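Re: weekly structure request thread

Next one in the queue (93 aa):
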Amino acid sequence: MVRNKQGRLDALDQLSGTPSRDEEIFVCRRVAVDGHCHTRRQKFGGFFPLARYQLHGQQPDDETARGPRSWQDWCLPQQKELTPNPDDGGGPG
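Done, posted below.
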């Protein structure tokens, strides 16, 4: 998620989304999906999840968050830490 100087937030949820130099970056993680909703619009209609997010406890430095390779390198260990491990009863792996 990013916030620009005017305070406007953007989830950067599209593959083409990248933060601008003047935007502040915050890493959030999905903690729940509470259902789905359907919108019927001329463009971008469909079913969408209703999800809750929270600020991730550990935040990367700005350079890491902006670099595609460094961002991936930072995310993978975070993902492994938060992904349930089926070998030990489903707790974080």
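DSSP finds two helices and five strands in the chain. Helices lie at 62-66, 68-82.
Next request, please.
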